[in-house]
């Protein structure tokens, strides 16, 4: 397994997880709000402070985003590009959003694919306070109770990252788990280990994160040590996990496909919601 050397000490716990209850939702994102305010506000109105949201055909203006970039120094293994600011209305084709808390305030982490007014298809990491909803939009989501994603300073990577944490008393009948995965472990193996830990035999997988190079089942390979990824379709069964993902590489190129199990290590972090289906 290829490895990246991060600047800090390697944490002992490689997959952090907490049992929770996930509830399927349909939310309305309000025109004129930042994506951060629109998503977290809609979740709050539904009674949730954490969740996962799927964006599809959502109009954004202004749009602001970044893609992965080489780190300028040795304080991080990778960094972000300059801010991309396409003109006009940009349509989010598909995107994944993890919602939690940062510095005591609601905060989101969003990776996706979008199309600008000129018809260019781009992808990256949306800047949540700088991108705004251009038209009211209806989106699907999961609300989470009993756990959350809380941004913490991470010594290993020197980033402030979401950590999966339990919130409040343990639930009697959890049907899901929130998960954050540390660098260098295979993402499929991490998901399967968490499912075994929580007694989940079959599940749907949602999430965003980064991978160090990518190997797809069709034989194609992305030779980019930093990528921005979101899960397009993910499942776990007794036979293991199947992950279809989309991502952008260091050159801004988009790649989509099914990951090879056992050959795709996390770059910096991966944040997941695992929802049991049986």
Textual characterization of the structure:
There is one protein chain. The chain is mostly beta strands. The protein folds into two domains: 15-20 and 146-276, 60s Ribosomal Protein L30, Chain: A, CATH 3.30.1330.80; 23-143, 60s Ribosomal Protein L30, Chain: A (2-Layer Sandwich), CATH 3.30.1330.80. The chain has helices spanning 35-45, 187-197; strands at residues 15-29, 50-60, 65-66, 68-70, 78-80, 90-102, 105-115, 121-126, 137-145, 147-154, 159-166, 176-181, 203-211, 214-215, 221-222, 228-237, 240-248, 254-258, 266-276. A 13-stranded antiparallel beta sheet has the order 3-8-7-6-2-9-1-12-19-13-16-17-18. Strands 4-5 form a two-stranded antiparallel sheet. Strands 10-11 form a two-stranded antiparallel ribbon. Strand 4 (68-70) and strand 5 form a beta hairpin. The longest helix is centred in the first third of the chain and has 11 residues, at 35-45. The two termini are 32 Å apart.
Considering DSSP H and I runs of 4 or more, what fraction of the residues is helical?
A: under 10%
- Shape-level CATH architecture of the largest domain: 2-Layer Sandwich
CATH superfamily of the largest domain: Hypothetical protein, similar to alpha- acetolactate decarboxylase, domain 2
The main sheet orders its strands as 3-8-7-6-2-9-1-12-19-13-16-17-18
Mean pLDDT reading: 97
One letter per element, helices H and strands E, the order comes to EHEEEEEEEEEEEHEEEEEEE
Low-confidence stretches: none
Radius of gyration: 17 Å
């Amino acid at each position: 397994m290829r490895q990246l050397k991060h600047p800090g000490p390697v944490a002992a716990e490689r997959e952090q997880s907490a049992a929770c209850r996930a509830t399927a939702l349909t939310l309305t994102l309000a025109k004129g709000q930042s994506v951060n305010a629109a998503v977290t506000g809609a979740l709050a109105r539904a009674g949730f402070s954490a969740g996962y949201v799927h964006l599809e055909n959502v109009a954004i203006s202004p749009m602001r985003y970044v893609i992965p970039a080489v780190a300028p120094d040795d304080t991080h293994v990778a960094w972000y590009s300059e801010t991309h600011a396409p003109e006009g209305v940009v349509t989010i084709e598909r995107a994944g959003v993890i919602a939690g808390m940062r510095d005591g305030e609601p905060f989101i982490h969003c990776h996706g694919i979008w199309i600008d007014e000129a018809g260019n298809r781009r992808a990256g990491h949306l800047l949540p306070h700088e991108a705004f909803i251009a038209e009211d939009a209806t989106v699907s989501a999961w609300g989470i109770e009993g756990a959350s994603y809380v941004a913490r300073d991470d010594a290993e990577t020197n980033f402030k990252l979401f950590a999966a944490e339990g919130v409040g008393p343990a639930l009697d009948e959890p049907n899901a788990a929130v998960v954050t995965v540390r660098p260098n472990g295979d993402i499929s193996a991490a998901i399967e280990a968490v499912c075994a830990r929580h007694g989940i035999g079959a599940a749907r997988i949602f999430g965003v994160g980064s991978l160090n190079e990518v190997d797809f089942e069709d034989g194609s390979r992305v030779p980019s040590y930093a990528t921005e990824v979101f899960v397009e379709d993910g499942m776990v069964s007794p036979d293991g996990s199947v992950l279809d993902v989309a991502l952008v590489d260091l050159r801004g190129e988009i790649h989509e496909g099914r990951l090879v199990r056992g050959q795709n290590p996390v770059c910096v972090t991966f944040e997941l919601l695992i929802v049991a289906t049986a």
